[in-house]
Specification:
Layout: E1 5-8, H1 12-30, E2 39-42, H2 46-54, H3 58-75, E3 79-81, H4 91-97, H5 105-115, E4 120-124, H6 127-130, H7 134-141, E5 145-147, H8 151-163, H9 172-189, E6 193-196, E7 214-216, H10 217-230
Parallel strand pairs: 1-2, 1-3, 4-5, 4-6, 6-7
Helix pairs in contact: 1-10, 3-4, 5-7, 5-10
């Protein structure tokens, strides 16, 4: 009997990708056509999260996440995931008060990077994620060094995410910018792979289009939840 997966969503596009990944990749693991675990998803308005983040009110972000978890627990969720990288800044506070076990997105990325033998990876995400230390900590625990772009590029990546990607706007110019930035992280910073550390970046950067191997945080978290549900 597969365990019920609860998804604490934040921005819609990334959460939708996570949900779709769970449902479409499950049949291969479960051995039956159309099979997947029971899945429930809840989110507060994205504007509530943005307002709190912009104000630096991370305790408020924690409260929203726990509020979503409480609703998911009522639906019967056994395992909780959040496909939003940014709000993992408060993961430890959430996990300490949670009713159900949560999977950490950066931990799943770090385990995959270690499995693939990478020693240095680049990180792309919101400014909140790139300027925080939670990815660096999880990667370091696996013997992996993290690099981030220069300050001007971090600012532009953040703008593209919040002004375009979360609204499902994927422009040719932004695709080209990400491709060039990833190539630069390889040639100038020695990165062997790049962490797509924003839930929406995999929608504009693919394994095929990236100059470096990608570590797709959204899909890796979804796959980890699937294994936790059926193993």
């Amino acid at each position: 009997m597969a365990k019920h997966i609860g998804i604490v969503a934040c921005s819609a596009e990334g959460a939708a990708l996570c949900y779709t990944t769970v449902c479409t990749e499950a049949p291969r693991l479960m051995g039956a056509k159309h099979a997947h675990p029971e899945v429930s998803l809840h989110t507060h308005p994205f504007s509530d999260y943005v307002r709190l983040m912009e104000a630096g009110n991370w305790a408020g972000v924690t409260a929203l996440m726990l509020s979503s978890e409480a609703k998911l627990v009522k639906t019967g969720a056994d395992i909780i995931i959040c496909p939003d990288n940014t709000i993992h800044r408060v993961f430890d506070d959430v996990a300490a008060r949670a009713q159900r076990p949560w999977l950490h997105i950066a931990e799943e990325v770090a385990k995959e990077a270690q499995r693939l033998g990478f020693k240095k990876v680049g990180l792309l995400g919101t400014s909140y994620t790139m300027d925080s230390g939670f990815y660096k900590k999880k990667l370091a625990a696996c013997g992996i060094t993290q690099e981030v772009p220069a300050a001007k590029d971090r600012t532009l990546v953040n703008r593209i995410i919040f002004d375009e990607l979360v609204a499902a706007e994927f422009t040719t110019e932004s695709r080209a910018y990400f491709t060039g930035l990833i190539a630069e992280m390889g040639s100038k910073q020695g990165c062997e792979a790049v962490v797509l550390g924003c839930t929406e970046i995999p929608l504009i950067v693919s394994e095929e289009s990236s100059p470096l191997p990608v570590l797709d945080s959204t899909r890796l978290l979804a796959r980890a939840a699937l294994h936790a549900s059926i193993d």
